[in-house]
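Chapter review: from sequence to fold.
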Amino acid sequence: MKSALVVLAAAVSLTLTGCGGSAQPAAKAAAAPPACPVGWMPNPLDGQIGGEWNGLRIVDKHGGYLVSFIDQENGTEVHVNFHRWPNLRMPQCESDTSSQRIACYSDPAGSVKLPGIHATLYTVSRDADQWHLSYLWHANGATYVVSEHVAPPYSFDQVKHNVTRLLHSLVLIRPTT
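The token string follows.
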């Protein structure tokens, strides 16, 4: 695990294009490492926190966060979310049909193993990730998710390819003191 983090840190220093220099304030605010894409986001998104396509930037007092990037034009939507929950439990969301809490992610459809990441792809997502394909994995005592909305201009298969490519491009940015 430690060697995977060293490799990820080296990748960050070489080619970090996602999150930009603004990843450190986010890491410090959450007191936790954000997952940032290195070198690729679905067109036209750029992954720059505080940039043109950055939507939400929510950090909670427990070290969880939601950072979204979105472009909506001419009936199309490209929307990517990055989450961190400060525990290893399946995140819970409110049901659409009752006030019950249910799993935010369901219908697993495969997995991907990368250095330091063993992620499960979920085809049903709720709350901020509704209508998204979502990869969920655990690292450093937390649950991470990267997701993309299935909507034009991308088909289901293209979004699956995109979110898998995003997963491959992620690095954890460690907070500095």
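Two observations follow directly from the output. Helices lie at 2-15, 23-30, 156-169. Residues 2-104+123-172 form one domain.
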